Protein 1
Amino acid sequence: MKKIIHVDMDAFYASVEIRENPSLLGKPVVVGGSPNSRGVVCAASYEARKYGVRSAIPCSLAKRLCPEAIFVYPNFPLYSSISQEIRAIFHSVTDLVEPLSLDEAYLDVTCNHFQESIATKLAEQIQRTIFQETNLTASCGVSYNKFLAKIASDWRKPNGIFVIRPKDAPKFLLELPIGKFYGVGKVTETKMKSLGIHKGKDLYLWNRDDLVFHFGKVGAFYYDIVRGVDNRNVNPTRERKSLGIEDTFSQDSKDANFLETKIESLVDGLEQRRLKRDIRGRSLTVKIKYSNFTVKSMTRTYTSWLEQKEEITSIAKDLFFQVWDHATSLRLLGIALGNLDRDNQDEDSPSLFDQMEV
Ligand SMILES: [Mg+2]
């Protein structure tokens, strides 16, 4: 039996901003663009959440929900450096660390550097060390697989630890609302409910074939997880840093119309990959390779997610016409999204979720 801990920082970006500026303590803090911009909320303090403010809603809506909210511009370099500190703490416990985003990771502590057999003790130690070193709180979920550990970390937020033991798992899963199951997003949740599946106990009554019939191969996964079965390993390979696509032309070209069309089709391809993986990015890079193989690139970073294809297209063209000398033939064009967000979906088993809602 494995021992897995899922560690999730509490309202990470907002908590960092409050740490940096203690006058924000106890106030509704919204990290994002200006309340008048079309940007979205990156994070909200627990005080702001009481008003219904949460990540990914437009800043203007956040302002309407909570007029007294204090808007803070995100400081991603700072979040990223704190994230490195936290990861170092994880690695002091085990080599098997799988980061899901800047503030979240799975740890397989079945074997650990402290030869500690009680995972809950390690979770307490991790929480304590994070607080001592960063003055920030984290919540931990402890269980025997990734799915249950992730659910558990959410159960006692903030600054909580929740353990799901093998003997407690069935009861826990049967009462779990269907939207809380791993891989069940809004669209699947609606579909499940239309089939009469509201809680784990409803899902439990379905056989594997019927679930596969209705949901594709991910249906088999739902069959397993409601039984507490999730054999995914904690995968310590590096997380994806960017999502890109490039095209080497059959013939070098300096025809601006041709190149512009190429950018449009690259954006199409990127958009498909992005939706398939449920990834959002905040920066866009355009790369060009001249006929003499010289490579140039240009990146632009935004405070809000680049999610509109039209927007990505116009940024890509703008960057392209800045980086290209307008005279020399090109042999390759590429575009990539960076500063990715992986909060919404685990990195692993991508093929399993290829057919999930996008
Ligand atoms: Mg978090």
Note: The chain is about 40% helix and 20% strand.
Protein 2
Amino acid sequence: MPQPPPGVQSDYPLSRLTTVRTGGPAEYFARAGTIAALERLVAWAAAEELEVGVVGSGSNLLVADQGVRGLVVKLDKDLSKIEFDGPRIHCGGGARLPAVSAKAAQAGLAGIEFGVNIPGTVGGAVRMNANAYGGELARVLEWVDIVSPGGSDRRVPDQLGFAYRRSDLGPHEIVARASFALTPAPPEEVKATLADMRARRKAAQPSGIKTFGSTFKNPDHPRAGGKTAGQLLDAAGCRGLRIGGASFSAKHANFVENHGEATTADVIALMAEGRRQVRERFGVELEAEVQTLGPIGAEQLESAFGPHAGTAEGSVPA
Ligand SMILES: Cc1cc2nc3c(=O)[nH]c(=O)nc-3n(C[C@H](O)[C@H](O)[C@H](O)COP(=O)(O)OP(=O)(O)OC[C@H]3O[C@@H](n4cnc5c(N)ncnc54)[C@H](O)[C@@H]3O)c2cc1C
């Protein structure tokens, strides 16, 4: 294989780029600071027939223990900037959502307050259709610039297939930039909303643990009786359940916690056990919210991730 472009590293440990801190290395890893650099990397990968994956803040990501074949990209520099244009914010796909929310509040712009507690990037939030406290990404998102092996294009929310915690972006489509159209409001009011959201979150969720947040989506099945995934796991006796170095958090049963030495295999076994107990107790099939990067066996995907496992909705193949 010809030399990779400058800046591409081999065997790069990905666990340090995820919040749960498990999983193996990327065969190739690179940071892209501009659209041109990103396009060059993606073109190189296409020419070498390498799969392309992207990692944001890794706050919703489970990396296979054996690592990821192909190229994994992380956006930085220009592609993580946050810039104002009147009531609009233009940012890189690698910009951190809590920073976007805080800067918007300082500038007296409302509409993206819900991002303050979502520890991900703008690109990850678009792929996941991230939401909190009734806020809605699609309501304020104007457009995204996508880079992929098939070329680059600009899309509006109607073209992104947003549904509960998903979009129909393909696994190789990278959100490089995004624009949000916000509403002018007194900065003190927007800041007060952020403070209230932070306080509510602190009371409800564990902090300072290695986790990817909610493991399973909240089911809308009638047998769930309106219960959240966390309430079902709790009622099925999974709160605190531990396999290897991973457990369901004692504070929030839908959060998996890595106690320090967990492997991705531990996390997957725990997820499968949680799904099994909820199925047996309530007849409800939980579906994973967390995304995967790298090869996870078909059997584990089905038992731990649920209905959409192995599809573009449930995992990123590599
Ligand atoms: C403590 C905690 C609390 C959380 N609270 C919430 C919450 O309230 N609401 C909520 O919705 N989520 C929540 N999450 C989940 C997570 O923060 C969101 O899903 C977030 O949007 C993921 O962004 P990320 O940059 O971390 O993506 P990653 O975890 O890095 O990746 C997630 C997926 O997005 C893809 N991706 C990443 N960057 C890009 C890009 N630039 N272009 C295309 N695809 C990309 C990845 O390939 C992967 O498929 C929480 C997580 C934690 C750890």
Note: Residues 311-318 have pLDDT under 50 and may be disordered.
